[in-house]
Amino acid sequence: MIDWNDYYYFALIAEEGSYSQAALRAGVSKSVLSRRMAALEERLGVRLIQRTTRRLALTAAGEQFAVECRALVAQGERARAVVMAAQESPQGMLRVSAPVFMAETWFGEFVSEFIARWPLANVQLLAINRPVDMVAEGIDIALVTASGALADSTLHYKKLHTQADILVASSQWLARHPQVKAIDDLNRVDGILRLTNNGGSQWQLINGDQEITLHPEARLQTNNIRVMLQAVLGGNGVALLPQFACKQGLQTGNWCACSHRGAAYPDRCMLYLRGERGCPPLRDILWMS
């Protein structure tokens, strides 16, 4: 079996002309280096180094072998430089999936900034609301909003941050429904509900250590957040929406938060295959806190 370290050690010996100096550069003892060279000569069946008590010299075969060993070491350094450059400057294709609204808003903006910053990197962004088969569809990273542990044990996940979902309605709708005064009253409101894999027919809120589950009337059900935003703006009912999506409406006063006591807190996660030695090559840039 070839031990490429021996080729590296021999190249050092040929360059330094000394076991002591070569051992110092290699970070091993002189005796270890001597044994390795003796074993190398035995495997090759040829003498490479002439040793005397005062000096070291290469044989004719050793001179030829040293040329090739130096070439191997140089090639190894070039290979290392390529890998290091890839880590310092991301390159290649990255396939990412994300929910439609996430892709249309903050993550779409992030991708635009990312490809502008790293000209050698290419991104395929799939904006889809359905679960993805990462292996079959060749997806490197899947962004999801989830609560609880992952069902698929073949995946790793990295939490990006926790998203606050709040109940909102237009000021006009609240003016038409003055009877909505307490949290329990939200069980009887017109609900604009987000369709999920679990159906999405209820709202689960958190108020400190207390968990609250509400069952509104399903006035509208959709898996598209933009449709939900339009329905709220049109005064059609109450919706549980990501707080960042409601920011502008709350600031202008067109919308009102129906309950300051409770909000849902799902996690935004990044999924990747367990088979990867880490996350895909662009992992360090996609991590967010």
In a few lines, what is going on in this structure?
The chain is an alpha/beta fold.
Note the topology:
Layout: H1 4-16, H2 19-26, H3 30-44, E1 49-51, E2 56-58, H4 60-88, E3 92-98, H5 100-104, H6 106-117, E4 121-127, E5 141-146, E6 155-162, E7 165-170, H7 171-176, E8 190-194, E9 203-207, E10 210-214, E11 217-222, H8 225-233, E12 238-242, H9 243-252, E13 255-257, E14 267-273, H10 283-286
Parallel strand pairs: 3-4, 3-5, 8-11, 8-12
Antiparallel strand pairs: 1-2, 5-14, 6-14, 7-12, 7-13, 9-10
Helix pairs in contact: 1-2, 1-4, 2-3
Describe the protein.
- By secondary structure, the protein is of the alpha/beta class.
- 38% of the residues lie in helices and 26% in strands.
- The chain has ten helices and 14 strands.
- The chain has a five-stranded mixed sheet with strand order 4-3-5-14-6. The chain has a five-stranded mixed sheet with strand order 11-8-12-7-13.
- Strand 9 and strand 10 (210-214) form a beta hairpin.
- Mean pLDDT is 80; it is low at 274-289.
Features:
single chain, 289 residues, alpha/beta, five-stranded mixed β-sheet, 14 strands, disordered C terminus
The general outline is rod-shaped
Mean pLDDT score, rounded?
80
Measured between the Cα atoms of the first and last residue, the distance is 47 Å
| Helical proportion, percent range | 25-40%
Total helices: the number is 10
Topology, number of strands: 14
Structural class: alpha/beta
Question: Segments where pLDDT lies below 50 for 5+ residues?
Answer: 274-289
Bin the strand percentage: 25-35%
What order do the strands of the largest sheet run in, or round the barrel if closed?
A: 4-3-5-14-6
What is the H/E order? HHHEEHEHHEEEEHEEEEHEHEEH
Radius of gyration: 32 Å
Largest sheet: 5 strands, mixed
